[in-house]
Amino acid sequence: MEYIDIEKNLIPYRFDLSLADEVFTFEVHYNEEHDFFSVDLERDGEVLVLGEKLVYGMPLFYDVMDNRFPKFSIVPYDESENSIAVTWTTLSESVFLYVIEDEKVEDA
Question: Is residue 40 helix, strand or coil?
């Protein structure tokens, strides 16, 4: 299964990612006070989302039915099932952002 590796030592930082032949820009942020991560999402210079919180087991942008968003689900998950939260300690150690091809609705 493919996953997006987050470089915690670079946060806050931006990177481009190609999903289904579409390029998206992700910006990753960390809230040290409450120990959580969030992402901003852009496509073709258009801001689609600001501050989407990474929640364990919940697909990013799951509540959006819009064809400008990635056609794949992106889910924070620990394959070993030892972690149940996305925190500084777990992200990119045991919890990764997995790209899942079959869950998003393509037409909205």
Answer: strand
CB–CB of 26/8 below 8 Å?
A: no
Q: Which two tokens stand for residue 99?
A: 């790209």
Task: Give the number of other CB atoms < 10 A from CB of residue 2.
Answer: 11
Do residues 27 and 11 make contact, with C-beta atoms less than 8 angstroms apart?
no
**What pLDDT, in 10s, does the model give residues 25-76?**
999 999 999 999 999 999 999 999 999 999 999 999 988 878 889 888 999 9
Sheet order of strands, 3-4 included: 3-4, 96-100, 73-77
- Residue 55 resides in a domain: yes
In a domain, 107, yes or no: no
